[in-house]
Each structure stands twice: as C-alpha cells, then as structure tokens.
User: What shape does this take?
Amino acid sequence: MKLKWTFLLLGLLLLVSSSAAHAHSNNSEGFSTIDVQDQTIHYRLQLDMVELSHAAGFKVDERQTDNVEALQQALTVNKELLQEYLNTHIHIYADSIPVEGTINEALIAQVKDRPFADLSLSYSAREKPENLILEYNAFFDDSDPSHANMAKVNMEENQQEFIFTYEVRELSLGEMSFLTKAKQFLSLGLEHIFTGYDHILFVISLLIGAMTIRHILSLVTAFTIAHSVTLALATLEIIQLPGKLVESAIALSIIYVALKNIFQPDTKHRPWIAFAFGLIHGFGFAGILSELNLGGGHLATSLLFFNLGIELGQILIVSLCFPIILLIKKRLALKWLLPSVSTAVLLFGFVWFIQRAF
Assistant: This one.
C-alpha cells in the first residue's frame, strides 16, 4: 500500500515539474517607447522572450534562459515569423492611415533578471502625422491574458505614458486638422480608383456602350449615386456584406457589361443597370475604409473626401477615355478595336470571378 502511494506521489511530482518547465510566464510584462520624428515612427519594444516564443510560435529551451547566444540565435532565425506576428498584433495608424513596421534590430536584453527580446522597429508615414493611434494586442488572446505593456509615447510636445492591458488596448495621441483629413482621404480616394483596375474596366465598359455625352452623363450619375449610398451604408456598418461575395459580384458586373458590348453593340446601356451595379461597387469601395481606424469625429469628413476622391478619379477616366472611344466609333477602319477591347475586358472579368469565387 505504501509503495502504491509512493509511486502516485512521484507521478504527481513529475507532472507538476513538467508543467512548470513548460508553463507560460503569467503576468508577463512588456515595455514600449515610441518616438515620432518627422515621417518616421521609431518603436522600441521589449517583450518577455519565453512568452514571445509561445505567442509567435517558435521554440526556445526554457531550461537555458541564461544562454544569451542560443536565445539570440532563436531571435535571428525567426525574424520573419516575429515580423509577421507583430504586424498582425500591433497596428499603428498615422492620421488614420495604417503604417506597417519593419524590424531593424532584434537583440536579447536582461530585464528584471529575465531574458527579453529587445526589438527596434520603424514605421514610415506619408508625411509627419498629427494624430497617432496604437492598437496593441500582443499576448492577450493567444498567450497571456494577464500581460501588461508600459508605453511611453513622444510626439512633438505631446508626451504620454500608458499601460496596455487585456481590457485597454488602444492609445490615441494628437488630433488631425480638418485640412489634413481632407487631403489624406481625397488622395486615398484617387489612389483607390486608379489602382482598382476592376472598377476602371467597368467604367470603360460603360463608356463603350454609351451613345452620346448626355447618355454617358446619365450612366455616370446613376453609378455615382448608387456607389455613394452603399459606400456610406457599409462604412457606417448599417449594412455589411461578405467581402468574397462583393468582389465576386463586381467581377460578374464586368462580365455582364462586356458581353452586352460584344453581342448587342447597338443597344445602349440603361442607367438602372449602372445604378444596380453601382450599389455593388460601393461595397467594394468601402473595403479600404473598413481597414482604417476611424473614430466618430473623423468618420464624416473621411467618408466625404474619400468619396470625392473617387468621383474626381472617375471624371478623369471619363474625360480621357470617352473622346477616344467616340473617335474610334467614327472611324470605320478602327471599328474592330472596341469589340477586341470588350473581349479582353470579358477575359479579365472571368479570371477575377474564378479567383474571387473559388
């Protein structure tokens, strides 16, 4: 009987010791020092090395935490993994525009007699930010809910000390001026329309099927009103649709208009078609705004000028393309060109639909 209890006691001791050897460092600490210098945000981040290995998904020998060389090797080998972890768990917004960090240096430091990863990151903004928002989510949901990070932020004359915890994960410093907001989101809208090749091809397809300047004005107006409505509804989170569904539907809209241009070249597009598809494209335009950190005070101005940027981009596309399309239609020798363009648009639409739907 005594032998049985002896084996049971030994088993419990082994279990406890094994758990202790692999346990996370509950109540882990972190330290952040953030300095904004012109267009660059310098971020020095210190995190418990053992806890970081658990969270980011790489291994360190927890029995040899005093082996600095081995820990340094683990940091160096897993730098890309660390980069991915930090970029998905720490988000910085400069004037509401997300900026992505790059690890410049990764060293081992001793903090409170424990090995810490001492990481130096830099974030590049388009211009010197007036407002900085930091969302910190390291460790909380995947490793240590009791984690706390003591942060110090220096931004011109604004200095703030803050503690990130499970319950409080966002820090905001400074305030954007109206002109900065307007400029940022007007530029963002222009950039979005000129890099949104699916939207550009849809507008060009509408132009190919247009008969007169008055007709194209009615199509563009209907498309603009429709996408402005759904852009606002989606950004305000009144109506939300799955991104995969929206992107697939945008590809189908391109396919439909291209097919109509090929097989019914003499039938003009009706404004209600542009309006119906404009509703879908508006949800697509809203996708980029959903990625930004827009507080209530920023939302109205941001939405207004982002949409204005899109409209200016559309006007430029129409102004450049429609005269060329009219010229091609009047030249008999070039009439083969528009069906060829529509066929190419159709192929792009099919490829996008397959990529997005499956």
Observations:
- The chain has eleven helices and ten strands.
- Residues 27-174 form one domain.
- Confidence is low (pLDDT under 50) at residues 1-25.
- The radius of gyration is 28 Å.
